[in-house]
Amino acid sequence: MKKYEYKFVEVSAKSNFKMKPGESFEECKKIILEEAEKGWQLKQIVTPFNEKLGVYGAMGYQIIFEKESK
Predict the structure, then answer these.
(1) Are 63 and 32 in contact (CB under 8 A)?
(2) Whole-angstrom Cα distance, residue 31 to residue 55?
(3) I want to staple 13 with a disulfide (CB 3.0 to 4.6 A). Which of 33, 35, 39, 60 is the partner?
(4) From CA 54, how far away is CA 52, in angstroms rounded?
(5) Is residue 21 within a helix (H) or strand (E), and if so which, with residue range?
């Protein structure tokens, strides 16, 4: 049976007036490409939310990578 290992990378949502729209997601894309070069495959991107603030209180992104264990 194949075994897999997982890597979790957090990208915080940035919020200030100097930010360009989509800048946090651009950081996600950069990380995905860097990790792909290291042999990691993108599994999923999750946008957890702040339970106190609801959906509008997004905290950032959780990027989940997977690769087969050796």
Answers:
(1) yes
(2) 24
(3) 60
(4) 6
(5) none
User: Would you list the domain boundaries of the chain?
Assistant: 4-68
In Å, how far are 21, 49, 55 from 65, measured between CA atoms?
A: 25, 20, 24
Lowest-confidence region among 12-16, 19-23, 29-33, 35-39: 12-16
Whether the model clears a pTM of 0.85, i.e. scores above it, the answer is no
Closest CA to 25 of 63, 64, 67, 55: 63
Number of helical (H) and strand (E) elements in the chain, helices listed first: 1, 5
CB count in 10 Å sphere of residue 64 = 15
